[in-house]
Amino acid sequence: MKIAVFSDSHSDVMRIIGILKKEPADLVLHLGDMVRDALRLQGAFPEIPVLIVKGNNDFLSTAPSERVERVSGLTLFMTHGHRYPFGYEAKELYRDAVGQSADIALFGHTHVPCLERRGPLLILNPGSISLPRRGLKPSWARITIDEAGNVTPEIVEG
Questions:
Q1: Ordered per-residue pLDDT tens for the chain, 158 residues
Q2: What is the three-class DSSP state of 27?
Q3: pTM of the predicted model as reported, rounded to 2 decimal places
Q4: How far, in Å, CA of 109 to CA of 132, rounded?
């Protein structure tokens, strides 16, 4: 299974559409800021499921702020991240993800990519596809899960 993870698209949905045309995915995760972009993806790619959480700029959205999903035998904890204080440790995010028995914790909001393993938990922020910070390039994440359940995550610039 190939999962494409986006966050903080801030109305630059055409960039995501271009990526998905070049690199088709089995599942798309959108971690908020802008839910309406994720809804446009659903219309552009009706054959690809799109799972959404809302961010701090999704004021009128009825999408959940957090969600837990089972995908290919793994538990994903999804949040935009604006309700978490992100210092060096991200203790609260780790605590909540572990409390949900998550294998992967996904968040956005910071516009800065993050890919780290903390014990058995994979923590991933794809960065921002439209408004990266710290002089970084726009980015998203690809998660590949093989038939044996092995997970290969990567941050992709572009």
A1: 999 999 999 999 999 999 999 999 999 999 999 999 999 999 999 999 999 999 999 999 999 999 999 999 999 999 998 888 765 457 888 999 999 999 999 999 999 999 999 999 999 999 999 988 888 899 999 999 999 999 999 999 98
A2: strand
A3: 0.95
A4: 10
